[in-house]
Write a structure and sequence with these properties.
It is globular, with a radius of gyration of 21 Å. The chain is 44% helix and 11% strand. The protein has a 6-stranded mixed beta sheet, sandwiched between helices. The longest helix has 23 residues.
Length: 335
């Protein structure tokens, strides 16, 4: 099969778009699609300081690469969760992130002739509205949960009622708290995650199956920042997981292939498998399902089911916003 735009051999055939592209045109097409999504949903601008939550997987590393190629001032954040799984899962994930940013820095140094020492610009040099300095280099912030708080995710899950059986609930709580805290404290105006179309469609499918109206009302590409919460956005919400995997292969981005060892048997994976079967029979099914939902929301669907805003106040221990009296759910994990 040949590329739609030239005579080269296509590296991917996107049936939902009826579009086959060669390597060069594919790596041009992907950033253009992501930028359209950013503009369509007014996620952020060139003047925003962007923090990308990276896991070492294909989606987050591809997203970071895409944002930098487009020209956004984007740094990365990796949270070490202390998950082993028999193959040093967290350590291997962090290694992929560090390799990625090292390669970025070496590439930028090479472009400038290798005549200067690599450095990071202080956060205050990248305040909203300021020009990105010529010497700015992407930074990877890392935080180890075991080193910072004394226990890994699996250890916390074994100790507290919330995480018994599987640590996924504890993991989600800790990641949300720390990502928001770090983004807010370091002055980033927006927190970006690598959720792709497959992820969003699976979440929507699960919420629809059980009619979780509150979750449906909140689901979307943008979660506005307010009351101490950083603005959260999902620029890959219109991109298929398969497209992100292909992008990493073509761009030479090394990512961790293994899934989290605790994800085995997760309901979301079953939902993805069901949707994949529908997609195989009807290309574009996932896209139509999710984008149709967003369009319906814009048209007033669920307006009568908006969840009232909860009264927030600072946690007495960490200062992060919470609805709970006294300490937030995160702080109650440790004391």
């Amino acid at each position: 099969m040949k590329c739609r735009k030239c005579t080269e051999i296509a590296v991917i055939n996107m049936r939902q778009h009826k579009l086959a592209l060669c390597a060069d045109h594919f790596v041009e097409w992907v950033p253009a699609q992501v930028e359209k999504t950013i503009h369509k949903y007014k996620m952020f601008t060139q003047n925003d300081r962007v923090l990308v939550a990276v896991s070492g997987g294909k989606d987050s590393l591809a997203l970071w690469d895409i944002l930098l190629r487009i020209g956004y001032c984007a740094d990365g954040l990796y949270l070490g969760l202390g998950i082993d799984g028999g193959f040093d899962y967290s350590d291997e994930s962090q290694s992929r992130c560090e390799t990625f940013v090292k390669r970025l820095r070496e590439s930028k140094d090479h472009e400038e002739g290798g005549s200067r020492e690599l450095e990071s610009v202080p956060p205050d040099a990248l305040s909203p509205g300021s020009r990105v300095p010529d010497r700015w280099l992407p930074t990877l912030h890392t935080l180890s949960i075991p080193d910072t708080y004394g226990q890994s995710i699996p250890q916390v899950a074994q100790r507290v009622q919330r995480g018994r059986g599987k640590p996924c609930s504890v993991c989600g709580l800790i990641k949300r708290h720390e990502m928001n805290r770090i983004a807010y404290q370091l002055g980033y105006s927006v927190l970006v995650t690598g959720h792709n179309l497959d992820d969003e469609a699976a979440v929507l499918f699960g919420n629809t199956m059980t009619w979780q109206v509150g979750y449906l009302a909140r689901q979307g590409p943008v979660l506005p920042g307010k009351d101490g919460f950083a603005r959260k956005v999902k620029p890959l919400c219109r991109m298929y997981e398969r497209e992100m995997a292909a992008y990493c292969l073509v761009r030479g981005i090394d990512y961790i292939y293994e899934e989290c060892p605790y994800s085995f048997g997760a309901t979301s994976i079953s939902h993805k498998e069901l949707l994949a079967g529908m997609e195989q029979k009807s290309p574009g099914a996932k896209q139509n399902f999710y984008l149709g939902f967003l369009k319906a929301k814009e048209g007033g669907f669920l307006n009568d089911h908006q969840v009232p805003s909860a009264v927030m106040h600072p946690c007495e221990r960490c200062g992060q916003p919470t609805t709970a009296p006294g300490r937030c759910a995160f702080c109650r994990l440790w004391t």
